[in-house]
Write the structure tokens for this entry.
Amino acid sequence: SQTIHQWPATLVQPVGSPLSLECTVEGTSNPNLYWYRQAAGRGLQLLFYSVGIGQISSEVPQNLSASRPQDRQFILSSKKLLLSDSGFYLCAWSGDREPYEQYFGPGTRLTVT
Amino acid sequence: GQNIDQPTEMTATEGAIVQINCTYQTSGFNGLFWYQQHAGEAPTFLSYNVLDGLEEKGRFSSFLSRSKGYSYLLLKELQMKDSASYLCAVINSNYQLIWGAGTKLIIKP
């Protein structure tokens, strides 16, 4: 069966510090991968998605970036965090066939202070 | 633009039935999903509809009318553990997943 891992679970970082969140998927190959952010009490905002190694599409211009160095690894980064980067970050994967339902990792709760 | 509308919050009683509505306006349609999200946790997949009609899965059912741009999630025999947010999402013609803001369901004893 497929599983998706995300770490860390919680993170408190000062403004201006760097960020690296990692997501890995097991039990499937060539998944579509996604990074979302969810502000408190709000819906999901798609940040990045990837259909293959080195292929990243950005949905929202901001100070975040993503990379996919391996087939089942997806990394979200920032060089300098802003207060507005606080939120619940979720990684998800989907297969490359319909219906493309997405399965989410446990999430990382980031607080920028 | 593309948008999905859901009520922000609903309240229901344990043991009762509740219907959560979702209307959508998207560039094309390739399917609709319902997800459940407990507070502080990740969303989990509940159902998928691509054809008109009702899909039943235990206590949960999901209905779709493509001509009306409308879906609902029906929860029967409500339990306290059903207190969560319910997210509606639509895949458009570009296979992008468009998310609603979610409906927070509060179950009272």
The longest strand of chain B covers residues 18-25. The mean pLDDT of chain B is 95. Chain B touches chain A through 19 residues (CB under 8 Å). The radius of gyration of chain B is 13 Å.
